[in-house]
Amino acid sequence: MHGFDLDHLRTLVMAVDAGSLSAAVPFRCLSQSALSEQLRKLEERAGQPLLTRSKTGVRPTAAGERLLAHARPLLAMADAAWRDLHEMPLEGEAYLGVTDYFRPADLVRLLARLHQQFPRLRLRTRIGRSDELEAAQHRGELDLAIVMRLESRDKQAPTAIVSPLHREALVWVGALNGNPLQRGRPVSLALLPEGCSLHRLACSRLDAQGTPYVISHIASGVAGLQAALAAGLGVACLNTSAVLGQGLRLLDEDGLPSLPPAHFILLQSKLADDSLRSRGLQALSVAVAEALRI
To answer: What distance in Å separates the CA atoms of residue 257 and residue 203, rounded to the nearest whole number?
Structure first.
């Protein structure tokens, strides 16, 4: 009989999204040896390697990419079937926070998909900085929050279930036209306020490299930051999807320090009971995660 085990496919998806087997372990509630065994059986079933393993993590092979393209919608349909048979329609209100560094095209697709899947649900969205959204989620003001972190392994949150979504490279950027870096002069930075993780990262990396800098502009949000950068007011580090189509260019070749990847994760509020709302929010969390991993 031909076919793949859905549980093994879920492990493959999680390993790729988390970036490594060790990072996927807490999300699959398996030991690393059990997780590795599931992947071994999946590769045996596929008849070819699905992952390339290295010291920095795992990446899908060409065959792995092909299988992932099938696995993600299959898992989404399996989850939808489970919700349907357990009669878990979502209605009322839910509160979703989204970091303003998040990919705009993905947010449009997500909202359209959630409206289609949960037509009776009224969704309230809040766009803001990741630190503000995590604090709001901790206070119980948000049911779900999509935030950005810089840790290579996601720290746990006491009031939330943490699920990885995707990783993006961080890059140094400046205006498309002009020369934002001038030899012999301090680097001019355009940044978000001090609470922003990328603000702290840019300053700490330049300090570590011994590169002098001045903060020439502070913007309240990513849209304002993109405008300031395009106007030539300074340089900044941004996730790659925040660069496209914004009148900006990469500055990797200009001797600026290297940057770590950005990790986008989903925080879901922990509810102590097994109420309909608790199960409904779990269904919403699954739908959000599956939509954004496709």
So the answer is: 10
